[in-house]
UniProtKB/TrEMBL annotation:
Domain of life: Bacteria
Biased composition (Low complexity): 103-113
InterPro entries cross-referenced by the UniProt entry: Transposase_mutator
A Pfam short name: Transposase_mut
Keyword terms, alphabetized: DNA recombination, DNA-binding, Transposable element, Transposition
The protein, known as: Mutator family transposase
Family: Belongs to the transposase mutator family.
Chain spans, region Disordered: 47-113
UniProt function note: Required for the transposition of the insertion element.
Amino acid sequence: MFSPEAIDALLKDAKSAGTPIDGVDGLLNQMTKAMLERALQAEMTGHLGYEAGDPAGHGSGNSRNGRSTKTVSTRNGPVEIEVPRDRNGSFEPAIVPKRARPIIRSTRSPRPG
């Protein structure tokens, strides 16, 4: 999905910043946070029917209304994400459902014996 060049650039930036690959503050958790938050923004856009800042949203009866935080458990530790809200409270995210304790796990098969 990612080009080798993009991955190399991320790894180089992490190394120069002293950021570990794994762990709570590591690159993997930073990427998980960024991907989940971007997916949630896309879900909100689909829910509302217009992009953030689009004049089509004026007077639509529903609009973006800030964010709330949620902690997602991962193999590398907890990741705190910001979940967008809508004014009517009708947004039900699919990727990180409301009132669920989401856990992102690896899909690796267990090691043989």
